[in-house]
Amino acid sequence: MASDDDVIRKRLLIDGDGGGDERRLNALMKLFIKWCNSPDPDISTHQRMLSFLAVGEFAVAKSSFVYEMNMKQMEKYKQLQEEIDANVSLAKKEIEKCKTELAEARLIRKNRKEYDALAGVVLQHPDRQQTEGQISELKCDLKELEANELRLVEKLDLRKKQFHALLTSINHLQIMLNETEEEEEDKRSLDVDMDDAKMDTTPEELAQKT
């Protein structure tokens, strides 16, 4: 036994677009059988059959027209889908291009910041001409310092020699002073001995000596 879905599907296939074609076909078939079985020509039945045929032809033409319209609409939808796909692909390419440009812009911005920072550091230092002038001045100052150093070294050597001569003279004087002190000490010792000898001599001995 056929299910309800099968019956509905069969009716839709037979009925066309649902405009009563099945009933008209059944009525046309009954009229045709009646007309064939009638011994006398029935003009009214013939006219009714022609009317049913005209309506059927109109329904067929209408269905054909609807089919063509649907096919054209499907073709249009297909073209529209292709255009949408092309636009989506183009949009993806534009997005990738924008991403690349954004990355390049970020890199340029980063390089510009680094350049500005480096330029600020460079501007804090004097230019090449000024630096060369300062170097020349420093070289002149260095030469003067070297000359002063040489003069100071020579003067220091002279002072060392003078100091050495002074120390030598002081040493000689110290030796002479020591010798003089020794002579004076010997002389004082001799005088003391003579005084002691005089004190030990009696008046008689002195008289005899005189």
Write the layout of secondary structure elements.
Layout: H1 4-15, H2 21-37, H3 43-123, H4 128-200, H5 203-209
Helix pairs in contact: 2-3
Description of the molecule:
The chain contains five helices and no strands. The protein has about 210 residues and is an all-alpha fold. Keywords: Coiled coil, Nucleus.
Count of helical segments?
Answer: 5
Q: Residue-averaged pLDDT, rounded?
A: 75
Proportion of residues in helical segments: over 70%
Q: What is the CA–CA distance across the termini? A: 199 Å
Radius of gyration: 73 Å
The SSE string, one letter per element, is HHHHH
Number of strands: 0
Query: Stretches where pLDDT falls below 50 for ≥5 residues?
Result: none
Overall tally of domains: 2
| Quaternary assembly | single chain
Index terms:
210 residues; mainly alpha; 90% helix; 0% strand
In brief:
The protein is mainly α and 210 residues long. It has helices at 4-15, 21-37, 43-123, 128-200, 203-209.
